[in-house]
Amino acid sequence: MNHCHLLHIEFEYDGHKQIITPVLLQDEQDLILVDCGYPNFIPLLEKAALQNGIAFDLLTKVIVTHHDMDHIGSLAELKRKYPQIEVIAHEREVPYIEGTKKSLRLEQAESTYDALPDEAKPQAEQFIQFLASIETVSVERAVSNDERLPWCGGIDIVHTPGHMPGHISLYLSSSKTLIAGDAVVMEEGKLNIANPQYALDLDEAVRSVHRLLSCDIERLICYHGGLFPGDAKKALLELARKYER
């Protein structure tokens, strides 16, 4: 029994309706959450799990694709409420999640602050304060590219840097499913690079799209956009070519 459950979480952020799609992976021994939303999202995660017939107190692990606020915002709170969970992330992300290095997104926001017009600075200050408030948490297991985790029929780590240096996607060969994280997003039915203007290395992000093409993909799940409805490999190839023009 290996199941992949998409958690459709709808909410309002900064005055706009948003949707994210964390994923629950389940087998006979483990219940694994992939990414966990903004701070205070535990009730939304628990409700979405129950809608899939799953009790969240069975959670054993959380795999973090990267340390952006909408992916680790509830991680420390989850660890307090469910202390049995093991936190897993790429080795390059560990110091940012644990707080031994400053968040790269916080560094990015701080570095652009002085160039902003005065009228934009109050909102930027609020954003910087919010990023600085994200709680840190210990990572129990650091992973690397091409590593295979033994749960849920095998979870292959695909290092997909660009959006963040330690960003990972997950490939489930048993169901030919790719969990992309923010390596790609779905916008109006099409794939795109996630917020290309904020990618820490856009060229690397495009190379990561090529890396995803090495997987035999039948289902593609984007954190922003959910399940891609069309031919995922064809769409990834078109996206890569778009940025090569």
UniProtKB/TrEMBL annotation:
Reactions accelerated catalytically = 3',5'-cyclic CMP + H2O = CMP + H(+); 3',5'-cyclic UMP + H2O = UMP + H(+)
The protein here is known as Metallo-beta-lactamase domain-containing protein
Record's SMART domains?
Lactamase_B (SM00849)
User: Which domain of life does the protein's organism represent?
Assistant: Bacteria
Top-level taxonomy: Bacteria, Bacillati, Bacillota, Bacilli, Bacillales
Residues in Metallo-beta-lactamase domain copies: 19-224
Q: What does this protein do?
A: Counteracts the endogenous Pycsar antiviral defense system. Phosphodiesterase that enables metal-dependent hydrolysis of host cyclic nucleotide Pycsar defense signals such as cCMP and cUMP.
Q: Which Pfam families match?
A: Lactamase_B
InterPro entries per the record? Metallo-B-lactamas (IPR001279), NDM-1-like (IPR050855), RibonucZ/Hydroxyglut_hydro (IPR036866)
